[in-house]
Amino acid sequence: MRYLFIYSAFAGHVYRTFLLAKQLVADGHEVHYLLLTKNPPNWNVPGARIQVIGSAPMYTAFHGFPEKKDERTVREIFTKAGNILLEAVEAHRPDHIFLDEFCSIELHCLIPAGFANQIEVLTPFLPSNPNTDFPPQDRYGMPGPDASVLWSNYEEEQGETVSARQKLIRALFGEHIAHLEHRIWTFNKLHPAVSGIKKTYLHDASFDFGGQPIKPWERYGGPSIDLSRPEDVAPLLSTMVAHHLGKKSENKLITVSFGTVINDLVAADALIEFFDSLNALAEKFKWILFVAKLPAPIASSVKKTAVNLIFMKSLPQLFLVKQSSLLITHGGGGAVYEALALGIPLLVIPPKNIFDYPGNAARVVYHQVGLSLSSQSPIEAISQALEELLANKKYTLNAQKWAKKLAFERIA
Question: Residue 412 domain-assigned?
Answer without folding.
Answer: no
